[in-house]
């Protein structure tokens, strides 16, 4: 018998009437793209995280591509990142013809381990791309110290961590550049969308040019007239529209309540599952507060009579939308063809075999949360 009538996804947006009004207002305005909403959204995001500049993109992946370009990554450069991420993180390195180098994770936090980063540094290393996996900030102080010692650029993939706290500040000013994604399952949504925040005017200008065909109206080589602009590099059309920015701006009004709700749900799960002892949630670093984009259980498989797959399938049959985040990136056939081999990051690989993502998102009702707890208990005990 099913626990629930309807399928409970692992994540979902929360759109209200104000969001809808904001989008409609932009649809009735003179600008659908390259108008005032994009600039307003960028300023509001920069203000929220306390960064000087923000450059929006059509999605988070394009934003990461822009960041890798602005960091000057090119053929022969190595970039150290985590294998436990969405493939877009390391794909952005490949877009720039760089070489992703995977450093193993800290099994307690599931984030990239700074000691493993150190082990992977070579004279070719150009940058580090930590990911704030599940919404928990990576160990940024340690990573920035390593970067300073070796003169590396740090691009933080904050796709999960918009609104999370790191040592009394919002995530977004620790790295040289931080990316946030506004895909519907992420902390706030603009439909599709992404952004890079930075304190560097130089990176800011590079990002802006890259996003818009490599064109500029500044520092021109000739003065042909007021219409004149120049294309100075091969850029892309990676712009966000005003329609998307209007939705993002409206969502930003509710980010703190969204994060609050995620923290409450995580608290309920933590308490419920601590008692059953055969699962653990990620250890939280001191002075950080996760945004809880994902809630992941690590199963003690040798104490359970079922496999992870059986547990997954039983919960899905109960309409609980469990998931697994993520398959180690270099296991994918495309990466295998590039020469990456199984066994590269043993801790990440072992970890991957034992984890399960549970539903968590602000619009979940108390009943939804109870359904998850009840179903997990039923399947595991
Ligand atoms: C979602 C996500 C991205 C890509 O963002 P999009 O906006 O979907 O392109 C990159 N990295 C991580 C870790 C993500 O979760």
UniProtKB/TrEMBL annotation:
Keyword Metal-binding in record: no
InterPro entries assigned to the protein according to its UniProt record, in alphabetical order: DegT/StrS_aminotransferase, PseC, PyrdxlP-dep_Trfase, PyrdxlP-dep_Trfase_major, PyrdxlP-dep_Trfase_small
Annotated keywords: Capsid protein, Pyridoxal phosphate, Virion
Keyword Nucleus in record: no
Positions where N6-(pyridoxal phosphate)lysine occurs in the chain: 186
Gene Ontology process terms (BP): polysaccharide biosynthetic process
Domain of life: Bacteria
GO molecular function, one term: pyridoxal phosphate binding
Pfam families given in the database record: DegT_DnrJ_EryC1 (PF01041)
Residues at the catalytic site: 186 (proton acceptor)
The name this protein goes by in its record: Spore coat protein
Organism: Jeotgalibacillus soli
């Amino acid at each position: 018998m099913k626990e629930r009538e309807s399928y409970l996804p692992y994540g979902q947006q929360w759109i209200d009437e104000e969001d809808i009004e904001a989008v409609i207002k932009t649809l009735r305005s003179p600008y659908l793209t390259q108008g005032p909403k994009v600039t307003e959204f960028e300023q509001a995001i920069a203000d929220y995280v306390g960064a000087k500049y923000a450059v929006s993109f059509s999605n988070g992946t394009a934003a990461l591509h822009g960041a890798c370009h602005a960091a000057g990554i090119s053929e022969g450069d190595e970039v150290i990142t985590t294998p436990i991420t969405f493939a877009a993180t390391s794909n952005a390195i490949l877009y720039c013809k760089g070489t992703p180098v995977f450093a193993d994770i800290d099994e307690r936090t599931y984030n990239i381990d700074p000691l493993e980063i150190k082990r992977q540094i070579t004279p070719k290393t150009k940058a580090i791309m930590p990911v704030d996996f599940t919404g928990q900030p990576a160990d940024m102080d340690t990573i920035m110290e390593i970067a300073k010692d070796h003169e590396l650029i740090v691009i933080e993939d904050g796709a999960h961590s918009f609104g999370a706290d790191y040592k009394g500040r919002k995530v977004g000013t620790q790295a040289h550049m931080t990316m946030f994604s506004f895909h519907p399952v992420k902390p706030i949504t603009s439909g599709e969308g992404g952004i890079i925040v930075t304190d560097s005017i130089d990176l800011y200008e590079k990002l802006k040019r890259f996003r818009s065909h490599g064109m500029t109206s500044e520092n021109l080589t000739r003065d042909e007239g007021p219409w004149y602009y120049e294309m100075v590099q091969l850029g892309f059309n990676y712009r966000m529209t005003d329609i998307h920015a209007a939705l993002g701006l409206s969502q930003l009004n509710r980010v703190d309540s969204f994060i609050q709700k995620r923290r409450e749900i995580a608290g309920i799960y933590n308490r419920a599952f601590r008692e059953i002892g055969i699962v653990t949630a990620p250890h939280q670093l001191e002075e950080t507060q996760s945004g809880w984009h994902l809630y992941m259980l690590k199963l003690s498989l040798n104490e359970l009579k079922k496999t992870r797959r059986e547990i997954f399938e039983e919960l899905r049959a109960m309409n609980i939308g469990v998931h697994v985040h993520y398959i180690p990136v270099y296991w994918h056939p495309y990466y295998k063809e590039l020469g990456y081999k199984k066994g590269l990051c043993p801790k990440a690989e072992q970890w991957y075999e034992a984890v399960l993502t549970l539903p968590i998102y602000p619009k979940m009702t108390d009943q939804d949360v109870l359904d998850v707890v009840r179903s997990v208990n039923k399947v595991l005990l």
